[in-house]
């Protein structure tokens, strides 16, 4: 009877917690059947509670766990695909790099000679010397070094002579480079070096041609040399062709080859005088049409130089106007037309200094 009461209290407690539990109405028959039925009922209650608990929490856990695993698998698959894709890219890169390393540089000796020489002709002297370590026969070809010599030093007396025995344009390039460096340090010694090597003849005309076709000479040293060698300067001026050129543009070209001195003096007057005569000699029809003479061109050149300084100098605040330039220029040269002088002003105003 004690056990029956205990079972009864237990079932009531379970009923209070779970409304789904139903206590059978035949539990009060005899003790053995009641105990047997209550045992089965208790087992069912416990089992139902366990299933309900698993259905509530376990199912949610399984659902969350399943979602987490699905998300993890998705991320893992995505990461795996990215890694696989990146691995493929790296593989191709490594494969391409390996193939390039195996192939190495293009062998110019396997190409047609015309194509190989065209490729090497884009190299300077330093790079061509380095290329000769790999392609000795191609990089040491005389045609390549002849092109380098003539592209840097356009005129040399030795170009028009029969080359002596054992002559090499590569050696000539080294001598020309050495002579240019010597000239930039001491012009007289540089010219003597060229003559001692047979590169230049001892002639003002040949020296003037060499200077006119060379761009590696220091313009300050060249100005000092031409100031001392007026015979070379005369021949150098005659090498310019100013035909059909506008006066300011012709003056710019002249001072691009023969640099003007920094200060006004006898050398500047000499340069302008020689330019004026050469410009008139190159444009006789224009001089007759405009009524200009070498003296008038001389005046115009000085006016252009002064106007260039006035318009480009930051120290001059009140710039000369076009009307002032026309008035001042026509006072010095009355035969010059007003329109022509106005065009001169426009050229300096738009393009800039004539002796910069």
Automatic annotation (TrEMBL):
Domain SEC7: 175-351
Function: May promote guanine-nucleotide exchange on an ARF. Promotes the activation of ARF through replacement of GDP with GTP.
Keywords: Guanine-nucleotide releasing factor
PANTHER family attached to this UniProt entry: F-BOX ONLY PROTEIN 8, GUANYL-NUCLEOTIDE EXCHANGE FACTOR
Gene Ontology molecular function, alphabetical: guanyl-nucleotide exchange factor activity
The protein, known as: F-box only protein 8
Species the sequence originates in: Pelusios castaneus
Record Pfam families: F-box-like (PF12937), Sec7 (PF01369)
Residues spanning the signal sequence: none
GO term, biological process aspect, one: regulation of ARF protein signal transduction
Alphabetized InterPro entries for the sequence: F-box-like_dom_sf, F-box_dom, FBXO8_F-box, Sec7_C_sf, Sec7_dom, Sec7_dom_sf
Top-level taxon in the UniProt lineage: Eukaryota
Keyword Ribonucleoprotein part of the UniProt annotation: no
Keyword Transmembrane helix: no
CDD domains, per the entry: F-box_FBXO8 (cd22088), Sec7 (cd00171)
The organism's taxonomic lineage, starting at the top: Eukaryota, Metazoa, Chordata, Craniata, Vertebrata
F-box domain sequence ranges: 105-148
């Amino acid at each position: 009877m004690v056990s029956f009461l205990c079972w009864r209290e237990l079932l009531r407690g379970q009923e209070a917690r779970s409304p789904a539990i139903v206590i059978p109405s035949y539990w009060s028959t005899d003790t053995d059947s009641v105990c047997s039925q209550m045992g089965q009922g208790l087992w069912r209650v416990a089992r139902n509670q366990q299933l309900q608990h698993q259905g509530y929490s376990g199912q949610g856990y399984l659902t969350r766990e399943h979602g987490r695993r699905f998300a993890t698998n998705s991320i893992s698959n995505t990461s795996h695909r990215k890694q696989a894709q990146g691995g493929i890219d790296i593989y191709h890169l490594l494969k391409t790099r390996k193939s390039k390393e195996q192939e190495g540089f293009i062998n110019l000796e396997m190409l047609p000679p015309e194509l190989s020489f065209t490729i090497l002709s884009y190299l300077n002297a330093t790079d061509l010397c380095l290329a000769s370590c790999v392609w000795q026969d191609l990089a040491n070809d005389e045609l390549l070094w002849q092109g380098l010599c003539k592209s840097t030093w356009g005129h040399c007396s030795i170009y028009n002579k029969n080359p002596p025995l054992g002559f090499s344009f590569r050696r000539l390039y080294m001598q020309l480079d050495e002579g240019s460096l010597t000239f930039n340090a001491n012009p007289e010694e540089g010219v003597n070096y060229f003559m001692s090597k047979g590169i230049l003849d001892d002639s003002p005309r040949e020296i003037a041609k060499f200077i006119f076709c060379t761009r590696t000479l220091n313009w300050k040293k060249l100005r000092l040399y031409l100031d001392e060698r007026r015979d070379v300067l005369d021949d150098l001026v005659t090498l310019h062709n100013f035909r059909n050129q506008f006066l300011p543009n012709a003056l710019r070209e002249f001072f691009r080859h023969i640099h003007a001195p920094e200060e006004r003096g006898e050398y500047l007057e000499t340069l302008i005088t020689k330019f004026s005569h050469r410009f008139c000699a190159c444009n006789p029809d224009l001089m007759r049409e405009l009524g200009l003479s070498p003296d008038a061109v001389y005046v115009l050149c000085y006016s252009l130089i002064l106007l260039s300084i006035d318009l480009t100098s930051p120290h001059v605040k009140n710039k000369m106007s076009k009307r002032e330039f026309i008035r001042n220029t026509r006072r010095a040269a009355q035969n010059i037309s007003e329109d022509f002088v106005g065009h001169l002003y426009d050229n300096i105003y738009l393009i800039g200094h004539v002796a910069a």
